[in-house]
Design a protein that fits this description.
With about 425 residues, this protein is mostly helical. It has one domain: Amino acid/polyamine transporter I (Up-down Bundle). About 80% of the residues lie in helices and about 0% in strands. The N and C termini lie far apart (about 50 Å). Helix 8 packs antiparallel against helix 14.
């Protein structure tokens, strides 16, 4: 049985009133698990496509999205630490049954879209490295993610965190290495920080990049990760843990943001104008042509690590969502099979995996408001958070993030419906 919430917490250190004595670095970990979702194969597809198609134009989207992610992930972790509840659990206690089921349905759809992106990414990477058929690669990715989750289930959250941090290091190496061969232009990078678009397709990509960066499923998950790792505390203990959580989130999002930015800059520098065929396979081939075989190999290895790790984290998040909203848990293998089916169907019918990756990220971007609005509302209420409720500037900033996301999605719908370019 796949365990989340209190069962995992019981495997870790007990929730006591003693003040944490560990150095701040020893409290780091939950945010790095969440950060895996920010460097998943969906990020690779959207970021590389943005750089190869528009050069440095959408650099600002990555920077803005990562800043938003820092705030959002901290609020999620704070909710878990202060209330002792994950975000899905907090919503369950405040929603009628019909609303809770509808909310779970959209959250589950987001989890499925996440799994599609991650399994497809792993399948593409295995095809690039070993020439495996995509369907076989998808099955292997699902099996490996199940094995990774078994580590968390049997050995506890800290072992899972260490394993994920190791995979994150592999991902970073795979996607950053190319910049040492072809450094980006500092002037063009700075110019890319100016917010602007270039037609409807660039808005579509921006929405996908946002959906791939501010990930709804790990907003749900991070509240459970922080709660399960540290427990619920008050007073001095609580302040120390919140301070350590800021450090954890800041470090994790800095790493994830740097990797995402590296993807865009690598494509803008080395791949703009190259014939990539709009696919990750084409990107891999172009990297090999322009930067050499070793860099292309590191890219494929990074993509594979991204697919394996993010699929495990995504399945973990899906279990947290279901357990929190419905008080239902299902065996790991059953959930793994259910969430794996859509990706395998897409691979079996021959859908372009890279385009499916990008569209899955757009689906994720539409799920963000359903996550952010309740998160902002709950963390701003003193009846929920007590003295740890958001200060007014934080609430305003979080509300602004939510408005930006919703506005971008509305613009995307308009441009797509009208065929504007």
């Amino acid at each position: 049985m796949y365990t989340t919430g209190p069962e995992i917490a019981a495997k870790e250190e007990p929730r006591t009133s003693a003040a944490p004595r560990l150095p701040r670095l020893r409290l780091v970990g939950p945010a790095f698990v969440a950060a895996i979702a920010y460097v998943d194969p969906g990020n690779v597809a959207t970021n590389v496509t943005a750089g190869a198609t528009y050069g440095y134009l959408l650099v600002w989207v990555i920077v803005a999205a990562n800043a938003m992610a820092c705030l959002v992930q901290y609020l999620s972790a704070k909710l878990g630490l202060v209330t002792g509840q994950s975000l899905p659990e907090a919503l369950r206690d405040r929603m009628p049954r019909a609303g809770r089921l509808a909310y779970w349905a959209q959250a589950e759809l987001v989890a499925v879209a996440t799994d599609v992106a991650e399994v497809l990414g792993g399948a593409i990477a295995l095809n690039l490295l070993f020439d495996l058929p995509l369907l076989v690669g998808g099955l292997i990715t699902g099996l490996v993610s199940t094995a990774l989750l078994a580590v968390q289930n049997r050995r506890g959250q800290r072992s899972f965190e260490r394993m994920v941090i190791g995979l994150l290091a592999v991902i970073a190496l795979g996607f950053v290495a190319g910049l040492f061969v072809t450094p980006p232009s500092a002037a063009d990078t700075a110019n890319g920080l100016i917010p602007r678009f270039d037609g409807a397709d660039s808005v579509l990509l921006a929405a996908g990049m946002l959906g791939a960066t501010v990930m709804p499923h790990v907003v749900y998950l991070h509240s459970a990760l922080a709660r399960d790792r540290h427990g619920k505390h008050e007073g001095t203990q609580q302040r120390k843990l919140l301070s350590a959580t800021k450090y954890d989130v800041g470090m994790a999002m800095l790493v994830a943001g740097a990797v995402n930015l590296a993807m865009v800059l690598l494509a803008a520098t080395a791949l703009q104008g190259s014939d990539t065929g709009g696919s990750l396979e084409g990107v891999h081939a172009a990297i090999g042509t322009h930067l050499g075989g070793p860099i292309a190999l590191l890219f494929a290895v990074g993509l594979l690590a991204s697919g394996f790790a993010s699929t495990a984290v995504g399945c973990y998040a899906g279990a947290v969502i279901m357990g929190g909203l419905l008080r239902r848990r299902i065996p790991l293998m059953i959930r793994r099979v259910i969430t794996l089916i859509p990706a395998l169907v897409l691979l079996a019918v021959g859908v372009d995996p890279t385009q499916a990756l990008i569209l899955s990220q757009v689906v994720l971007s539409f799920g963000i408001p359903f996550t952010l609005i309740p998160l902002v509302v709950l963390t701003s209420r003193r009846t929920v958070m007590g003295s740890c409720a958001n200060q007014r500037p934080v609430t305003v900033a979080a509300a602004l993030v939510t408005v930006i996301v919703i506005t971008l999605n509305l613009v995307l719908i308009y441009l797509t419906a009208t065929g504007a370019t």
